[in-house]
Amino acid sequence: MSSKANKRKKQILNATFQAVADKGYHAVTLQDISDYANLSKGVTNYYFENKNEVFYQLLEWTVERIHRNERQAINNETTAINKLKAYVYTAISEPEQNRKFYKVYLDFLAHAGHNAEYRKVNDKFYENCWEMGREIVTLGVKEKVFSVADIDKAAITIRALIDGCLIQWLMRDDDRLHSYYRDICFDAIKSYLTNTKNNK
Amino acid sequence: MSSKANKRKKQILNATFQAVADKGYHAVTLQDISDYANLSKGVTNYYFENKNEVFYQLLEWTVERIHRNERQAINNETTAINKLKAYVYTAISEPEQNRKFYKVYLDFLAHAGHNAEYRKVNDKFYENCWEMGREIVTLGVKEKVFSVADIDKAAITIRALIDGCLIQWLMRDDDRLHSYYRDICFDAIKSYLTNTKNNK
Amino acid sequence: MSSKANKRKKQILNATFQAVADKGYHAVTLQDISDYANLSKGVTNYYFENKNEVFYQLLEWTVERIHRNERQAINNETTAINKLKAYVYTAISEPEQNRKFYKVYLDFLAHAGHNAEYRKVNDKFYENCWEMGREIVTLGVKEKVFSVADIDKAAITIRALIDGCLIQWLMRDDDRLHSYYRDICFDAIKSYLTNTKNNK
Amino acid sequence: MSSKANKRKKQILNATFQAVADKGYHAVTLQDISDYANLSKGVTNYYFENKNEVFYQLLEWTVERIHRNERQAINNETTAINKLKAYVYTAISEPEQNRKFYKVYLDFLAHAGHNAEYRKVNDKFYENCWEMGREIVTLGVKEKVFSVADIDKAAITIRALIDGCLIQWLMRDDDRLHSYYRDICFDAIKSYLTNTKNNK
DNA sequence: TATGAATGAGGATTCATTCAT
DNA sequence: TATGAATGAATCCTCATTCAT
Description:
Shape of chain A: elongated
Oligomer: homotetramer
Largest sheet of chain A: none
Helix content of chain A: over 70%
Order of helices and strands of chain A: HHHHHHHHH
């Protein structure tokens, strides 16, 4: 594929992302996408098979972006606690961007509930999330700051808490609660991982 | 309103629920609803102002049902731990029903991300969830089985974990993981609530 | 037909008349009619074959009422001029009622443009109007106050002016112009009928 | 707007005009319009906001056409009588076209009775009609062929007679009466304008 | 005689997709 | 490569009509 085509595709995906963040997955029309991209109505069908293909690639692109950011943040730290904090603080980073991203991701999750293809993309994202979680927990156990019996379960719990907190924050629609939820999330994970009674 | 009308409304809401669980919020047409209800195309508009009104009432009805079940389960128990277990085991109770309910609820959450009216309904649901959480945590603290510094935060965390686990389970689309996630959820909450280091 | 049935039919026609005056011929639903009549939705179809039958009978009833009033007014006077004045002053009598009646009549005329049955009803009305016109003109000629070569044409002209004035007044939507138009109408007819140059 | 778009709009308005003339304002569907235009169902909504917008613009277009023709006819003559005759003979010109135009116009008038926006358009048309009437009458008075006390009233009367005659002719549904009504109209106006008793 | 629940045909509108340019 | 005119399928909603009670 030419780099021009690649550039156009990116432009369209970006426009779609903004449109979905504003109007919601199902409210976005091809006209909306071309409006947001400042392109003509026909381009989207020129560069993508059909509308669904745009959304599918947007989902891939979105979860890749989320994962890339989180992975980078973790890699920048050395201790388990710092990696964990970096992870949570990247997942729950800044109200405006977070709101956009999570709105779009939530739209996709809902859609994935009825679409196996979308679920597959999300599963890959989960794998990545769990991997990051396992890394952090394994390191923490080695550092003796975490006390965890089942590392897989811990990884699942970490992502569940991040998503659970983000959704709850998103629904409450109050930017001032953003750091409140971020800290709740981090404290809860830490508390959960450091409870020595877990080694029963 | 006559009880006949009420019965019909229930019938339509039930049909809508099944249709949304099968096809997804935005894919459901009025024709679908009447098909699922075994009634004619016109009924829905006869009993409801418009399609959105059906969905809105379905959301209210859905979160009410969820809350009613959970509340009942909690009330049936006396100790904090048992109440917590009853809460989690009711929220994450049985694969088939759970899948349906949570698919529908997730569709609504996604839609609520772009609709303030829907958010308001969900906020009421959250209030109820937090109230149950606070009750359980408060009792646990009194019983000296929980060690919690901020009861509000604990209540938020409990619901975040339940929702986070349910979404993750739903996305993995494997009924055999149901009890696995249920236990992860319960254990994580318990671990988080019983960590004495929380009282820093 | 029982008198009860007759009473109900009148009640329904009256309700339809009010509804049409308010909302316009094509905007009126059977529900509107029953609402205006304070009756249940089913009655109209019980007493009338179908919706069109109601409108058809309303048209008959309306033009009969208009004609009856005008005929009575004419009969109450003895001289041609007074009869003419009574005719015009009854056709253009009082803003509020006039507006209602003429709105409804105009709706029917428009519909009659595409419906031969309705046109037939209106033709009967025209016959009555022309008959009144001829009577007045014939008397005026006998009284030597009118100078008319063709009595049929005069009768046609009289009705054309009344309708033309009423429509123009109706469209201008200003009750204060009512007597203005009434006088224009009367003066124009009188002027036309008294021009001796007509006997060429 | 491109001239292509303008052409299409005209095409749609023309199709709508024919459809309304045939079936009547309220019976015309968007499907009818596209059928008459030999275009697909979607075009109308592509070029017009909605169905009402088509009708609104059709009304504007119709009264403009009527006025343009009448104005032109008047301008082509020099004496008051000839201008008057040209005016009447253009307003009541040729059965088939006249029938179509007046059916459509009558449909609009009826609708205008319940719609202020439409009334406004018609008011502008009236202004134009009165202006033409005043011009002719003023000239006739100067020429000493007309004897009129109130020029505004005369202008109102002229239009009332034209509309009154056209409606009556239209309702009688007999093309052979067309010239009969045209002459009645012209004679009546002339007779009214030349009656010296008007200068009372 | 009267009701109003239920039906389903009809129509406005939206929008993904196609395709000539 | 890009445009946007044109299409027509899909869907919400209205409402005349039917009919069981």
